[in-house]
Design goal:
- By secondary structure, this protein is α+β, with helices and mostly antiparallel strands.
- It contains 7 helices and 3 strands; from the N terminus they run H-H-H-E-H-H-E-E-H-H.
- It has a single domain, classed as Orthogonal Bundle (Arc Repressor Mutant, subunit A).
- The protein has helices at 3-6, 12-20, 25-35, 40-46, 52-64, 86-89, 92-108, and strands spanning 37-39, 68-73, 79-84.
Amino acid sequence: MDEQHSQCSPCPVEFTVNMVGGKYKLVILHKLSIHGVRRFNELRKDFPNITQRTLTRQLRELESDGLINRQVYSEIPPKVEYSLSETGKSLHSILHQIENWGLNYIANNPK
């Protein structure tokens, strides 16, 4: 690694990992990239092992970081939809590459 990159502050890789790190953040972004718009309960069904609290926290952090949009509709019962922001959409090709890497790895490393 060249010395200039080792001393950069903030390190762009570390910054990005901190933003999308978290057990479910990348897969939430991937689901929104595929489906466009998802409601909270649809995301809960996508990840049956996630708790409501964890999903809420991950969504709030992604929204706070500007990666997703949260649209609240004035309806009864309340309706909330999540979608990728323009910044989140810029991750589409990266998410696709991660998916392809995972598929390739799984295919070549059967257990």
